Amino acid sequence: MGSKGILLILAGVLVAYYVYSPIPYDIEERWKLMVTDSFFRSLSNLAEISELLGLKHYMGVMMFLTVAEEVVPASDDSVKVTDALFYDVPVVVYEPKRKTNGELNRAVIFIHGGGWCLGSARMGPYDLLSRRTAKELNAVVVSVDYRLAPAYHFPVQFDDVYNVVKYIVQDHVLNQYSVDVKRIAVSGDSAGGNLAAAVAQQLQEDPEIQVDLKAQVLLYPALQALDMNTPSYQQNEYMPILPKTLMVRFWSEYFTSDLSLFHAMMSNSHNSLESAHLLKFVNWSVFLPEIFRLKYNYTMPSRKSSDPSETISAIIDPRASPLLVDDVKLQVLPKAYILTCEYDVLRDDGVMYATRLRRAGVQVTLEHFKDGFHGAMMLTTWPTSFEVGHRMVNSYIKWLDNNL
Question: What does pTM read for this prediction?
Answer without folding.
Answer: 0.94
